Amino acid sequence: MHTEPMRPVLVDLYAAHAATGIRPGTLRVWLHRGKLTHHGHDHAGRTLINLNELTSTPTTNAA
């Protein structure tokens, strides 16, 4: 069975916060640590991330 990869849903950090409840500051730290993939910036200069990365993989609060 062949499954198509999910299309990325690129959103800024504040939209990601609204969708998941994860604070933008936490998302910035995850970007810095390499837990999330940076997908450039939008026309207003906001950092873009793939919302599917947040909803498809479980995250832990381990330090």
Plain-language structure description:
With 63 residues, the protein is α+β, with helices and mostly antiparallel strands. The chain has helices at 13-20, 24-33, 51-56, and strands at residues 10-12, 38-41, 47-50. It has a 3-stranded antiparallel sheet with strand order 1-3-2. The longest helix has 10 residues, at 24-33. It is globular.
What would you call the structural class? alpha+beta
- The overall pLDDT, averaged over residues, is 88
- The stretches of 5 or more residues where confidence is low (pLDDT under 50) are none
Tally of DSSP β-strands: 3
Order of helices and strands: EHHEEH
Helix run count: 3
Large-scale geometry? globular
In which order are the strands of the major sheet placed?
1-3-2
Helix content: 25-40%
Keywords:
single chain, 63 residues, alpha+beta, 3-stranded antiparallel beta sheet, 17% strand, globular
Short recap of the structure:
This protein has 63 residues and is α+β, with helices and mostly antiparallel strands.
SSE inventory with pairings:
Blueprint: E1 10-12, H1 13-20, H2 24-33, E2 38-41, E3 47-50, H3 51-56
Antiparallel strand pairs: 1-3, 2-3
